[in-house]
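thought: fold this chain, then report.
action: predict
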Amino acid sequence: MVKEEEGFKANVPTKIRKKAHIVPREENGIDLLAVSPFAISVCQKLQDAGYKAFIVGGAVRDLLIGAKPKDFDVATDATPEEVKKVTRRAIIIGRRFRLVHVNKGAETIEVATFRGFAKQGVTKDEDGVITNDNVFGEQYEDAARRDFTVNAMYFDPISGDLYDYHHGLDDIRERKIRMIGDPATRYREDPVRILRAIRIVAKLGFTIDEKTAAPMHYMQTLLLSVPSARLADEFSKMVLSGSAIACMELMNRYDINIPIPLFDVLKRTFGLPFVRKGLERCDARVALGKSISTSFLFAVLLWHEMKEEVAKSTGKTPGQIYEEAAKKVADSYRWDGLQSRYVSDMAIIWKLQPRFLVRSRRAAMKLLQHPRFRAAYDFLLLRASSGDASHELADWWTAYEGATDEERLEMSKEAEQQDRKERERLRQERAAEGKSDEDEADGEEKEKKKRRRRRKKRFDRSKFPKAQKAASDKEKADK
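observation:
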């Protein structure tokens, strides 16, 4: 049941701060060179049109601690329609709270109108979760409506002044995350703030204020009312943030769960060396400014289940075994909020693993040219580092990738010789167990005949006159 909220007096500090503490440019220490020129341009256009406009939220927080902001948001007293008139290439989005996305090339600036709390129009469900929030207000109201003090500061890139309503600058200096207003009420408004607090603390290395942390555990049941797509998005942000290990350690410390299957998998497997190494490698890539493949990370999280499915299959080729196992694992989960290509790419990473064992010239070159070779190769290296695959095999592919064509040919010849010796060793072991070489040879000969029959049936040119003629023309041309 949805009800209309009369106001937000209970959701903000008892004493509403209407006046900000203004910290001038020479004192706040924000480097304008670290600010997006496009974000500055958006603020300039809005101010030139007579509106207030500030860079706000996580970008200001990151600028103050010397970190590079991932993106830039702008807050203004202009309505979405007014923002669209002032800026170019702008679109209004959102239902719960309307926003404007202003685009330039690959960069998008999200512009939000100051939110208010003293007017009608906001609706909540029976649990207190906000379902409609298109209520505009003053800047001080917008500050009180924000979640944490470190996210409630406003930076004017034109004047260089910082506007701080709730001592966010002090909390940054104390490296502390503190909720604005009553934490229980604010978590009830939006339960995802529990996960956001964890993510910010993990990313910045801060601590959570005691009053802010106290209700998190018992109020996490409200996450059950959050759409699974939104929870999946928050989960992705956690594991791709560059602080996945820290996030999971904090989730365990405060005993917080995300009610989606993928988080259950991560919680069960977090102690496994393979999964932990995978998360550490992803965190290290983010620290170096490199991108992370979402499909690679999901392949890491579900690899133990993939191996279990592979172990159940017998009497088929490795390719068939991995194909069927990947399908079973992928089909056993709901992927709400995640693009289907992530799931398909995850399956490809798995299915390429047995192909690393075949190092003949043709097979190796074909694998090297596969579009997903890099992700599958990195996965092989991760398996080798955790004892799940041969170090020798991983080293061979590392050398093969960087070799010349002549060197690759020689490497494949040597690998084929080694593989023949290995097959001979296995035949001898089976013979020692009571299986004769003749039986083995007969089995191999039968298998060869089957393959020849299949090839003949598949490529019988008499059934395809055009193909037969083309082959004949090619033979004549060769002569």
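thought: worth noting. The radius of gyration is 30 Å.
final: tokens above.
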